[in-house]
Amino acid sequence: MNIVEIRNIVIDYKLKKYSLRAVDNVDFDIAAGKITALVGESGSGKTTIASSLLNCISSPGQIVSGSVTFKDGEREIRVESLDENSLNAFRWEKISMVFQGAQSALNPVVTIFNQFYETMLVHENYKPKDSRVKITKEAAEKRVRYLLDFVNLDADRVMAAYPHELSGGMKQRVMIAFSLLLDPSLIILDEPTTALDVITQDFIFRLLRKINRETGVAMLLLTHDISVVAKYADYVGVMYGGRLMEYGAVEDVFRDKLHPYTRGLINSTPAINKDVSLLKPIGGEPPNLLDMPSGCKFHPRCPYCREECKTIEPETFSKENGHKIKCFLYSDGEDKCRI
Ligand code: SF4
Question: Who has greater pLDDT, 338 or 258?
Fold first, then answer.
């Protein structure tokens, strides 16, 4: 079952003299209760897509076409059609987001507890008058204590603390607890361990997986680190130049490594049991969104590039198991799905 369906979404940043296409015709699902990762280099469009789920793309970005549908039980919510009031209620109650550099998202002059409490009060006000429930400070304390315990923080100490009194890893766990505050069905995590040391990074990812498995909340994880995807995600989409190059269950994508870009990412990732001299970096540079290559956007870097790749952009080809690949090498059908 899917919690979000993204269909053929196109997102442009309209500047004075030109328009920049950050996401082009991207189509994928986010499964309920699972961890879906979007992996790709900076500028590949991951954050822009994630922002479209909350209809909060930074100006001057806008959805030009396509749709984002959130499934709330039997009800379907078209996110791009929500008015401002409905959006305010939707954000955080249905989908919450831990932004990149989340540690600076906390208000430096308000205690952690008060930041949680204010959010609860504000969201109560978005509800219709006849369905509002007065949130007492005691009830809020109970909820915040539970969440901080859940992310392995000392609730007594943290609730009374100001952000500067907490370490980077603690602040990140506070933000994760914050994202769970209103019991959303999906949490978006944009590079959730940036600026943390590797031990804390591993701790945070294990914690996220525990939260996912124990609460059933779906997660959309944005990362440039493919090894994190292999270890913690259930589904993965590989982004390049605003396109979804490959999408599927993690075990299928990592076993088959069908798209040349995915293969390049995996082959260039160091591992503790891998001889570093065997690592193969992907040659060339990521594409410039202001001057995108013609045809397949990966063709200037692709070792399998054919003539047609230089002028025609490939369609996305789907296998029966839901594995999708945007590459001409797979245009001939299921039996030829091998390089
Ligand atoms: Fe490489 Fe061509 Fe496939 Fe693009 S379409 S990834 S250039 S083989």
Answer: 258
pLDDT digit string (tens) for 33-92? Answer: 999 999 998 889 999 999 999 999 989 999 999 999 999 988 999 999 999 989 998 999
Q: Are strands 317-318 and 324-325 parallel, antiparallel or unpaired?
A: antiparallel
Q: 104: Cβ–Cβ under 8 A, 6 or more apart, which residues?
A: none
Domain range enclosing 179? 108-183
Atom of ligand 1 nearest to the CA of 303: 1
Looking at per-residue pLDDT, the higher value among 295 and 339 belongs to: 295
302 lines ligand 1 (CB under 6 A): yes
294, 328, 336, 339: residue to mutate for ligand 1 pocket, most atoms within 8 A of CB: 328
In a domain, 260, yes or no: no
- The enclosing H or E element of 85 equals helix 84-93
| 203 in contact with ligand 1, CB cutoff 6 A | no
Cis peptide leading into residue 192 (ω within 30°): no
Residue 241 lies in a domain: no
In a domain, 112, yes or no: yes
pTM above 0.90, yes or no: yes
Number of structural domains the chain divides into: 1
Which residues contact residue 96 at a Cβ distance below 8 angstroms, ignoring those fewer than 6 apart? Answer: 178, 179, 180, 181, 182, 184, 186, 187, 188
Give distance in angstroms: CA of 197 to centre of ligand 1.
36
Q: Does the pLDDT of residue 337 top 50, yes or no?
A: no
Q: Say yes or no to pLDDT of 139 above 90.
A: yes
AA letter at 301 = R
Mean pLDDT taken over the chain: 91
Distance in Å, CA 303 to ligand 1 centroid: 8
CA atoms within 13 A of residue 216's CA, in its CB half-sphere: 4
Residue to mutate (ligand 1; options 245, 263, 294, 309; most atoms within 8 A of CB):
309
Ligand 1 center to residue 298 CA distance, Å?
6
Atom from ligand 1 closest to the CA of residue 309: 2
Instruction: Give the pLDDT of residue 335.
Output: 45
For atom 7 of ligand 1, the residue with the nearest CA is 299
